[in-house]
Amino acid sequence: MGHGHGHGAVSAGAQHLGRLWVAFGVGAAFMVVEFGVGIATQSLALISDAAHMLTDVLGVGMALAAILLARRAKVAGSRTFGMYRAEVLAALANAVLLFGVAGYVVVEAVGRFGDPPEVPGLPVVLAAAAGLAANLVSFFMLRDGAKDSINVRGAYLEVLADLIGSVGVLVSGAVTLLFGWRYADPIMGVAIGLFVLPRTWKLAAGALRILFQHAPERVDVAAMQTDLGGLPGVEEAHDLHVWTLTSGMEVASAHLTTCRDADPTQVLQAAQALLADRYHIEHATLQVEPGDSAQRCREISW
């Protein structure tokens, strides 16, 4: 048996830990401001944007959590895979919360279209401008780290998308302030909510895919099994499993049945190289077994 390890995504993100903390602090502070002003002014657009900013804060928080847990929660005792899944659970909780907020905004907006309340434009514009400034700070803080770490890249893309929402709230606030058009706010609130929902669904689906231990979308499992089975000295590849531990950390295990004259070490090295080079999986546990000992594997139903 043999295995290889690759934790580059976490170590790369750790280089940008200070910037992540700044982005997290700035985003959290201005998210609270937007929620507060949005509730006080009854601005659905601002509440929607604050909910969208919540995705940024949680996205940065999950990147931080992945780095900090990797440092502190070493593999030990019963934690044979550490606590990397905490990031995935946080992503799922984030998605559930956002579905709730988006649903509230849509239902509330539909009720308001009959007689939209008067939303003061100036506080909305000022709060949206502050939110836009916070997003710009986070954007520049995370831009370099996004090139090195998949965790940081996810947070960076969240911030980038939220810039659109902040601009939308500024527009609706300006329209309300200049023209007094009461429909601008609920329309923009629904628009931002609908913009967030597909990304929220994707986030939830990605988290569930990891928790159910499905193979990564980019991996063709049938092709991988064929490639492993076609290696020199290998008669058959079976009991193949491919899954994701957390963002950027993909794992595989397989049994390789070999010919009688095959060198197990060479087969193992060839299989590890194939998985690393062709499928970018560096952590693989591979069992190399002679043909006459593979019958027991076929007797196991799962």
TrEMBL record:
InterPro entries: Cation_efflux (IPR002524), Cation_efflux_CTD (IPR027470), Cation_efflux_CTD_sf (IPR036837), Cation_efflux_TM (IPR058533), Cation_efflux_TMD_sf (IPR027469), CDF/SLC30A (IPR050681). GO terms for molecular function: zinc ion transmembrane transporter activity. The keyword Transmembrane applies. The chain crosses the membrane at residues 20-44, 50-70, 82-107, 119-142, 154-181. It comes from the Bacteria. Belongs to the cation diffusion facilitator (CDF) transporter (TC 2.A.4) family. SLC30A subfamily. NCBIfam families: CDF. This is Cobalt-zinc-cadmium efflux system protein. It comes from Saccharothrix variisporea. The lineage of its organism: Bacteria, Bacillati, Actinomycetota, Actinomycetes, Pseudonocardiales.
